[in-house]
Design goal:
The chain has 215 residues and is of the alpha/beta class. It is 44% helix and 16% strand. The chain has nine helices and eight strands. It has an eight-stranded parallel beta sheet with strand order 7-6-5-4-3-2-1-8, sandwiched between helices. The longest helix has 15 residues, at 139-153. The protein is globular. The termini are close together.
Length: 215
């Protein structure tokens, strides 16, 4: 299943997280369009952005610079209502910042991809057992060393550290075993500089860790 989100993230290596509460749907659409044009394919919008559902509806049908369907996800999903709204808007995946059993239930019922957040080893292992993937948040608290310890006991899981990570720190997190790294700030706005963020990892053709394609 080459187009599964997990395989896309393993190749993309950086997952942009658009969570600016000062923007609106129009700005979120502009940011997403710029990321797709820069070589990014999977983008996470969040429920903290005003008008986020409308932004998902407008960006879900888009394609990346190579003509491949975009994978637009919704993060900071913590309730049943948010999960249902996101999927109805066309979201390709859901992400929570912490364990969210109610969101997990919606994802299972609607056969949607859900990357559940956690911080303790138990929370992360539970999320990985449920769907093959987990978001580590807030990742900067534990650092790459914490991720190495998690990878030792979860060798096959898709693990996405997010929170407090700058673009320049991405290689260190990838070396520690991240499948992809969530970046919520610090990505360049210049189109050429933004494209340069994704070009090297796209050319590398994938990641050594967590490339499972099952939900």
């Amino acid at each position: 299943m080459p187009d599964h989100l997990y395989a896309v993230l393993a190749a993309q290596r950086v997952l942009p997280v658009l969570r600016d509460t000062d923007t609106d749907a129009d700005e979120a659409v502009r940011h997403t369009t710029a990321l797709l044009a820069a070589g990014c394919r999977a983008v996470e919008l969040t429920t903290s952005t005003p008008g986020w559902a409308a932004a998902v509806t407008r960006t879900a049908p888009l394609s990346d610079v190579h003509g491949r369907p975009a994978l637009i996800g919704v993060g900071t999903v913590t309730t049943t209502a948010q999960a249902e709204t996101a999927l109805d808007a066309g979201a390709a995946f859901l992400v929570s910042p912490y364990p969210a059993p109610e969101v997990r239930a919606v994802a299972l019922r609607r056969e949607a991809v859900f990357i559940e957040g956690g911080f303790t080893p138990g929370e992360i292992a539970t999320a990985a057992r449920a769907a093959g993937a987990a978001k580590v948040f807030p990742a900067h608290v534990g650092g790459p060393g914490f991720l190495r310890s998690l990878r030792a006991v979860l060798p096959d899981a898709v693990i996405i550290p997010t929170g407090g990570i700058r673009p320049a720190e991405v290689p260190e997190w990838l070396a520690a075993g991240a499948t992809a790294v969530g970046i919520g700030g610090g990505l360049p706005s210049d189109p050429a500089e933004l494209a340069a963020v994704f070009a090297p990892v796209a050319a590398a053709g994938g990641a050594p860790h967590g490339t499972a394609t099952e939900r």
